[in-house]
């Protein structure tokens, strides 16, 4: 999941030329970790959630599970906001994308 998260951050960085503030719609690249852009608007949060879920399962610790839940709620709020701004800013934004979890949320 961390490799996926890193790949997404690189893809997002490469959307803007240096010194530009122009925003573009993120699309998958040749890197297979970016293919999740077909399904979600904020795959960096999807991968982050996957990492925390894995850590929670490995540790089987209630405080870690609580932290994961709170983190998921916060990342969902951020993802929904970003998704709304993409829909408002780009008329041709892919309509089937979900904010954070494919087909669910």
From TrEMBL:
This is Very-long-chain enoyl-CoA reductase-like. It is a multi-pass membrane protein. Its main location: membrane. The chain crosses the membrane at residues 57-79. It is found in: Membrane. PROSITE patterns: S5A_REDUCTASE. Keywords: Membrane, Transmembrane, Transmembrane helix. GO terms for cellular component: membrane. It comes from Notothenia coriiceps (black rockcod). GO terms for biological process: very long-chain fatty acid biosynthetic process. Belongs to the steroid 5-alpha reductase family. PANTHER family: 3-OXO-5-ALPHA-STEROID 4-DEHYDROGENASE, VERY-LONG-CHAIN ENOYL-COA REDUCTASE. Pfam families: Steroid_dh. The keyword Transmembrane applies. InterPro entries: 3-oxo-5_a-steroid_4-DH_C (IPR001104), SRD5A/TECR (IPR039357). The keyword Disulfide bond does not apply. GO terms for molecular function: oxidoreductase activity, acting on the CH-CH group of donors. Residues 4-105 form the 3-oxo-5-alpha-steroid 4-dehydrogenase C-terminal domain. It comes from the Eukaryota. The lineage of its organism: Eukaryota, Metazoa, Chordata, Craniata, Vertebrata.
């Amino acid at each position: 999941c961390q490799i996926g998260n890193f790949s997404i951050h690189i893809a997002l960085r490469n959307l803007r030329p240096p010194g530009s503030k122009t925003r573009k719609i993120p699309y998958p690249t040749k890197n297979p970790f970016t293919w999740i852009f077909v399904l979600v608007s904020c795959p960096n949060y999807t991968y982050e959630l996957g990492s925390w879920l894995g850590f929670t399962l490995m540790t089987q610790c209630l405080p870690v599970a609580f932290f994961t839940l709170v983190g998921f709620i916060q990342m969902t709020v951020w993802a929904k906001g970003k998704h709304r701004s993409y829909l408002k800013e780009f008329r041709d934004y892919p309509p089937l994308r979900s904010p954070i979890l494919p087909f669910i949320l």
